[in-house]
């Protein structure tokens, strides 16, 4: 839950974290909270500053770059395989997912938009015959997910993502492997291409060298 709250932005970068407060919130003792804090520090979601306290870590741009590299390397390959292997039932599922995304965009349901984005990419891996690829990607993309959640604060951004998903789906359904690869590559670079703007609009959310020495 804490990890999800950090990724979604419910817990803000540089926000002070208290074991006692979190234990009260979740109705547990401080021991499991302390263990969770340690894991989140190891994963780069929290920063423990000696003699100061524990804080939500700012977004790590180096990790964002790494996750972008991994996603592009793996997903551009899986979407080619998906275009080659997709069947009629898969086509219907993909079309239904696009329709569901469109409804979520109309409602501007950010949580559902994010969830369906995940479902779409996982479905491409499933169609390609490599479900485990998405599990691997999930293990490295958390910092990028934090950027994605920030981007969804701009309503027009969700429409951009939806339209890119439509292009990818159309190429996969038509067995256009080359087009699908190009569309996926462009899609995965969309957030990355605007990260400077996102970082400027949310300067406090991103990493600098001060936190490890001074706290927020």
* C-alpha geometry: elongated
Structural class by SSE content: mainly alpha
In CATH terms, what is the fold-level topology of the largest domain?
Four Helix Bundle (Hemerythrin (Met), subunit A)
Poorly predicted runs? 209-216
CATH architecture name of the largest domain = Up-down Bundle
| Number of helical stretches of at least 4 residues | 12
- Main sheet: which strands, in order across? 1-3-2
The tally of domains stands at 2
**Overall helicity:** over 70%
So what's the CATH class of the largest domain? Mainly Alpha
Q: What's the pLDDT, averaged over the residues?
A: 91
Strand content: under 5%
* Main sheet overview: 3 strands, antiparallel
Query: Which radius of gyration do the C-alpha atoms yield?
Result: 19 Å
Order of helices and strands: HEHHEEHHHHHHHHH
Q: How far is the first residue's CA from the last residue's CA? A: 23 Å
What oligomeric state do these chains adopt?
A: single chain
Spell out the CATH superfamily of the largest domain: GntR ligand-binding domain-like
Number of strands: 3
Could you characterize what this model shows?
The chain is mainly α. The chain folds into 2 domains: 2-57, Winged helix-like DNA-binding domain superfamily/Winged helix DNA-binding domain (Arc Repressor Mutant, subunit A); 61-200, Four Helix Bundle (Hemerythrin (Met), subunit A). Helices cover 73% and strands 5% of the residues. The protein has helices spanning 2-8, 19-26, 30-42, 61-85, 88-107, 110-128, 131-138, 142-151, 155-173, 177-193, 195-201, 211-214; strands at 16-17, 46-49, 53-56. It starts with a helix and ends with a helix.
């Amino acid at each position: 839950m804490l990890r999800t709250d950090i990724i979604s932005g419910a817990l803000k970068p540089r926000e002070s974290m208290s074991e006692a407060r979190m234990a009260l919130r979740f109705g547990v003792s401080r021991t499991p909270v302390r263990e969770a804090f340690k894991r989140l520090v190891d994963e780069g979601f929290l920063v423990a500053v000696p003699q100061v306290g524990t804080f939500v870590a700012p977004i790590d741009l180096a990790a964002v770059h790494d996750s972008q590299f991994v996603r592009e390397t793996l997903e551009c390959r899986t979407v080619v395989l998906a275009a080659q292997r997709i069947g009629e039932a898969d086509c219907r599922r993909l079309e239904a997912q696009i329709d569901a995304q469109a409804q979520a965009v109309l409602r501007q349901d950010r949580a559902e938009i994010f969830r369906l984005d995940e479902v779409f990419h996982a479905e491409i891996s499933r169609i390609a015959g490599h479900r485990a690829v998405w599990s691997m990607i999930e293990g490295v993309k958390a910092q990028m997910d934090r950027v994605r959640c920030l981007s969804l604060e701009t309503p027009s951004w969700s429409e951009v993502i939806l339209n890119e998903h439509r292009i990818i789906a159309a190429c996969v359904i038509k067995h256009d492997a080359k087009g699908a690869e190009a569309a996926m590559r462009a899609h995965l670079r969309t957030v990355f291409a605007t990260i400077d703007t996102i970082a400027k609009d949310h300067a406090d959310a991103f990493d600098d060298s001060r936190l490890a020495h001074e706290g927020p």
